[in-house]
Design goal:
Helix content is about 40%, strand content about 25%. It is an alpha+beta fold. It has 3 domains: about 1-85 and about 215-220; about 120-190, no CATH class; about 225-265, no CATH class. Strands 1-2-3-4 form a 4-stranded antiparallel beta sheet. A two-stranded antiparallel ribbon has the order 5-6. The two termini are about 35 Å apart.
Length: about 270
């Protein structure tokens, strides 16, 4: 698969990426992330480090997963959801016009993706007589600001981290006006790859056009208890070690779980 952005490596972009064969280690990373109470960016880093084999031929570590831009990380989490059989998601929404409640089915594999724009991973913004340069945010930046409670303080820290000084420019960003901040945000949005975070639909009651939020990290909501229950069931039935169960391809593990249910009279 090709990343919509990619890792900047000199003047090249590494975009070819591949997942490892899907086994229990990826699900374990997801389950342990949920138990840890860690921030969403940290959990995404752990999941991608466990699931990805390489990017541009480079083995993926947690450090490389952190250096991926936000759009690439969201794209990869959705691709991982498809691989794990959770492509289809049911969303619940309420019409802001008439108050009607509705259910909407979306598929991760069909949600649109905007590739990186010209100049990626940097955006240039003119402010006054100067042209400033900013790098698009990465997972590392998200992790750094995840625990900052004040939105304004978090935005300032993100701006500082994404500041890419030129040889003749200052080492840290100056104080920008609200108008300049809006232009900086728009320029970074133009350059950064993006996945759809909203699904368009219409209210079945009044016909109002609606945008329903779609969580790009919905895979993190999988229940950790169900995974550990599966490992426990297999270990109890076959006396396999945890390592043996985690190394088993996910599809084969599901076959054995179905056989156990059939033997117990729980499946047909």
């Amino acid at each position: 698969m090709h990343l919509p952005g990619g890792l900047a490596c000199g003047r090249k972009r590494l975009r070819d990426a591949a997942f490892r064969p899907l086994d229990g280690h990826t699900e374990l990373a997801l389950a342990e992330g949920a138990l840890s109470g860690a921030s969403v960016p940290l959990r995404v880093t752990g999941a991608l480090a466990a699931a990805l084999d390489h990017i541009g031929g480079q083995p993926v570590t947690a450090e490389i997963a952190r250096d991926l831009c936000v759009g690439d990380r969201q794209f990869l989490m959705r691709q991982l959801a498809v691989r794990m059989g959770t492509d289809r998601m049911w969303l619940t929404a309420r019409c802001h016009c008439c108050g009607e409640a509705m259910d909407l089915c979306v598929e991760n594999s069909t949600l649109p993706v905007k590739p990186a724009g010209r100049g990626y991973p940097f955006a240039r913004v003119s402010a006054g007589r100067r042209a400033w340069r900013f790098r698009v945010p990465t997972g590392r930046d998200q992790e750094a600001i995840a625990d900052i409670a004040d939105p304004a303080e978090a935005a300032d820290e993100l701006l500082r981290r994404c500041w890419a000084p030129t040889k003749s420019g200052p080492a840290s960003p100056p104080r920008f006006s609200p108008d300049a901040m809006a232009r900086i945000e728009a320029a970074m949005d133009d350059v950064a790859p993006q996945v759809a975070t909203e699904a368009a639909t219409t209210c079945p009651a009044c016909g109002e056009a609606l945008g329903v939020p779609v969580d790009p990290y919905a895979l993190l909501l999988l229940g950790e208890r169900s995974f550990f229950s599966e490992v426990h069931t297999l270990a109890s039935a076959y006396h396999w070690s945890e390592g043996e169960i985690l190394a088993m391809p996910r599809a084969r593990r599901q076959v054995y779980l179905k056989l156990i249910d059939e033997a117990r009279g729980m499946a047909h």
